[in-house]
């Protein structure tokens, strides 16, 4: 189960780019809990010993580090937070500016901000297994072509053999975990789902809105399992998900990109809701499938996703890629 | 024609994301000057009055702001700095951690770092002209749903009325321009094409490889015009394009993302070849269509793209968006 939970964190890794896969926390309503733990937790990383940088992104301002916490293997993920409009006034008045360059109408500075206005999201995985460490390592991706036969002969046996646990998904569906994070739920066993923020989103601004709808139905592994009988489920998730996001975040459907991944990170049907214009990891055409297209395709061909050749990227260290190579399919 | 060339250069603008146009300053060698100016410059932004946020990126952690400095129009650009490996030890030992969430082996924190280890690059343009302000403004995008009827009633009349010139495309096909940039050509009038680097690619490294294949056939405006009769053309572009890229750049097909845009930037059939793993502008699922999928869809339904509802983003300033709004379709 630990390994599979890791898969959840690694949702976008198959794109070949280390994602800003930082678990994001709650905000105001958790202050009590937070404060209670603060003194205990303050020093957790003070003795962190870095072994190696697994990957980093200068563009996204994040870094994935392997190291030790009190002799245990750990992975630490740091990512700077987006700049918030509502903190600008305090940022300008409360910071120190160091001039770097002045030329005509242009000048550049290094701004040193009050720490509480310039936090760094930090995720600690401890103890981390070899698999965690490998997963966060920067890895090349390859585009794989999967025919109907390839799915039956290569991909499906691999999924079954790995028997990835989705216990953490069931915990959410059964309210055993993260119940307070749920944004919307339709409890219907056939077409129902739970909508909650993705860990990649800190919920402080809608610019990078990212929610996940998890179906209550437990027997749909991925896009490949979908037939026309699932159209009502998909339509329900699409429609009610959009409505819930409009109500909660005041973001209309015309500002949303709603899609499934293939391959998914975990084999329980889920749908991604991200803000249009936010370059969300994994929203590229090589991995994402718009739910509106999926619905249309199933309506005109009930077996569309069972029979089609599908294309997707796999990282160099993905076990499934080795299986495709062994089968001479790459 | 000027307008159309402009459209070509603006190929990616429909994604609605501003580029990280941040001027960068110098560092160490400027310390003397910096110290000299420090006291004077410290307060430049303390009285900054924000008029509006022109654009920002939650992914890249930057923000472009229009406002006033001492009654003068100004643009301020803030961008958080990448996390540096050489400051990690000090960052871990010198920061405060606030626990947000703990679940099994995962925990998340807000890290408050010493200001000098967590600077924000700041660029001031002052006085700024109207042109500066416009340049940094985000053009918002909206997702449009285009049915078969919408295409006939809204989009096609708009394309025809605008009569966008593609003379520059004909110049390439006829070797009147850019002949020396051609990477490969198949001169066949039916299935032939010209392959050349996109303007966005400087050709200095294959990491961000970006080529365009332009069909010799002149009567195909876009994806909407494609039927099964065009499958040989698409297959030829796909196959020979991949071969040419392997030969010239030593990049195999498994490292390529090959797709069409809808809406395209110009209404003459062309195909994008970009490197897998390079986050090319316009490769998102909301605008890109894998050529391999297009071929399959046309093979099973010759009228697939004539009849399907298609989804695409349009920028707020796109004339076509106004037409959809006037028709009550947004």
From TrEMBL, chains A, B:
Catalysed reactions listed for this entry: a 5'-end (N(7)-methyl 5'-triphosphoguanosine)-ribonucleoside in mRNA + H2O = N(7)-methyl-GMP + a 5'-end diphospho-ribonucleoside in mRNA + 2 H(+)
Keyword hit for Acetylation: yes
Domain of life where this protein originates: Eukaryota
InterPro entries xrefs: DcpS/DCS2, HIT-like_sf, Scavenger_mRNA_decap_enz_N
Main location: cytoplasm
Record SUPFAM superfamilies: HIT-like (SSF54197), mRNA decapping enzyme DcpS N-terminal domain (SSF102860)
Assembly: Homodimer. Associates with components of the exosome multienzyme ribonuclease complex, such as EXOSC3 and EXOSC4. Interacts with NDOR1.
Active site residues according to the UniProt entry: 270 (nucleophile)
Cytoplasm found in the keyword field: yes
Comp. bias regions, Basic and acidic residues: 1-36
Gene this chain is encoded by: dcps
Subcellular location: Cytoplasm; Nucleus
Function according to Swiss-Prot or TrEMBL: Decapping scavenger enzyme that catalyzes the cleavage of a residual cap structure following the degradation of mRNAs by the 3'->5' exosome-mediated mRNA decay pathway.
Record-given protein name: m7GpppX diphosphatase
One biological process term in Gene Ontology: RNA splicing
């Amino acid at each position: 189960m630990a390994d599979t939970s890791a898969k959840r964190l690694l949702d976008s890794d198959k794109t070949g780019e280390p994602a800003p896969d930082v678990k994001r926390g709650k905000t105001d309503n958790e202050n009590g809990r937070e404060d209670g733990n603060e003194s205990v937790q303050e020093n957790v990383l003070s003795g962190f010993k870095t072994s190696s940088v697994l990957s980093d992104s200068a563009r996204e301002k994040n870094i994935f580090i392997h190291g030790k916490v009190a002799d245990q293997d750990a992975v630490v993920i740091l990512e700077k937070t987006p700049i918030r409009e509502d903190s600008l006034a305090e940022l300008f008045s409360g910071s120190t500016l160091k001039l770097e360059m002045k030329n005509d109408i242009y000048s550049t500075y290094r701004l040193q901000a009050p720490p509480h206005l310039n936090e760094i999201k930090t995720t600690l995985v401890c103890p981390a297994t070899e698999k965690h460490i490998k997963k966060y390592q920067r890895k090349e991706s390859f585009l794989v072509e999967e025919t109907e036969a390839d799915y039956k002969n290569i991909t499906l046996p691999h999924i079954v053999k790995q028997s990835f646990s989705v216990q953490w998904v069931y915990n959410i569906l059964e309210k055993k975990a993260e119940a307070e994070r749920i944004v919307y739920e339709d409890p219907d066993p056939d077409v129902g789902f739970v909508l909650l923020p993705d860990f990649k989103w800190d919920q402080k601004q809608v610019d990078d809105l990212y929610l996940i709808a998890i179906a209550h139905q437990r027997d749909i592994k991925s896009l490949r399992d979908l037939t026309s009988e699932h159209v009502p489920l998909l339509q329900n998730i699409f429609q009610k998900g959009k409505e819930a996001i409009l109500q909660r975040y005041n973001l209309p459907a015309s500002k949303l990109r709603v899609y499934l991944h293939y391959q998914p990170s975990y084999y329980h049907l889920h749908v991604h809701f991200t803000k249009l214009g936010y370059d969300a990891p994994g929203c590229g055409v090589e991995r994402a499938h718009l739910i509106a297209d999926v619905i249309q395709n199933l309506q005109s061909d009930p077996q569309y996703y069972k029979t089609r050749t599908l294309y997707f990227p796999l990282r160099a260290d993905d076990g499934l890629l080795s299986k495709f190579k062994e089968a001479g399919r790459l």
